[in-house]
Specification:
The protein is α/β, with parallel strands linked by helices. It contains eight helices and seven strands; from the N terminus they run H-E-E-H-H-E-E-H-H-E-H-E-H-H-E. It has a seven-stranded parallel sheet, with helices on both faces. Helix 6 links the parallel strand 5 and strand 6. The termini are far apart. The structure holds zinc ion. Zinc ion binds next to loops. This is Nicotinamidase 1-like.
């Protein structure tokens, strides 16, 4: 088992300073939700779903609902990735999950209403990195087009898993921004309480052949640390208000 001490030690050795982010009418911000699907978030929904209620995942869903409601009330742009796979195309190293047309590949019940919102773009993807998963057959990129069409300056990223799909998407978005593909995008902001990862403790992984241990708190922290290292802003608080002093 990973002890509390090991996690505390890691947090001391690899600290992630977290700021707060103020959402403002003055700066166009887009909300990016990564894989808020049953297959990753709903207890017992599939091979990659939590096996029992999980606080980190519940908090992530609650925070996503809160922010999505705020964005939809204001008709601000929202881009939601949904992991969805063709039944005949595996995604190693993962077992089959989120197969097209199943409940696993659907938004969690608390976010199903997003399907009817005009400011929301839903994007099914069949790979870890949503940036790659946004490439269309003609070579265009649905995510790039969303940023450009909406003239988005900041993206606020929430989702699962902090150290997998959220991290890979964040890194690709940062590289694309640095190469000038995402103008006018300035900041990629990862909201820590709006992200979660799965839990496979070391003592459980030892009992499963070839399993790679994945202690939740530790890997969540590492995901945030890596994102910050690549140039994302990591925030632990989001408020709404005017950016400038009157
Ligand atoms: Zn997948």
């Amino acid at each position: 088992m990973v002890s509390e001490t090991a996690i505390d030690m890691l947090k001391t050795e690899l600290p992630v300073e977290q700021d707060s982010f103020i959402l403002s009418e003055d700066v166009k911000t887009g909300l990016v939700l990564v894989d808020m699907v049953n297959g990753f978030c709903t207890v017992g929904a599939g091979k990659l779903a939590p096996v029992q209620p999980n606080e980190q995942i519940s908090q992530m869903v609650d925070e996503s609902v809160r922010l999505a409601r705020m964005f939809c009330e204001k008709k601000w742009p929202v881009f939601a990735f949904l992991d969805s796979h063709h039944p005949d195309v595996p995604e190693p190293p993962y077992p089959p999950h989120c197969i097209n047309g199943t409940d696993e590949a659907k938004l969690v019940p608390a976010l199903e209403w997003l399907e009817n919102e005009t400011n929301v773009t839903l994007r099914r993807k069949d790979c870890i990195d949503g940036f790659l998963g946004s490439i269309e057959k003609d070579g265009s990129n649905a995510f790039v087009n969303w940023v450009k069409n909406n003239q988005i300056v900041n993206i606020l990223v929430l989702g699962i898993c902090t150290d997998i799909c959220v991290l890979d998407f964040t890194c690709s978005a940062l590289s694309a921004r640095n190469r000038g593909f995402l103008t006018p995008l300035k900041d990629v902001i990862v909201y820590s309480h709006g992200c979660a990862t799965y839990d496979l403790p070391v003592h459980v992984a030892r009992t499963i052949k070839d399993a790679l241990a994945h202690p939740q708190d530790l890997m969540h922290h590492i995901g945030l640390y890596m994102a910050k290292g690549r140039g994302a802003k990591v925030v632990s608080e989001i408020s709404f208000g005017a950016l400038k002093e009157p």
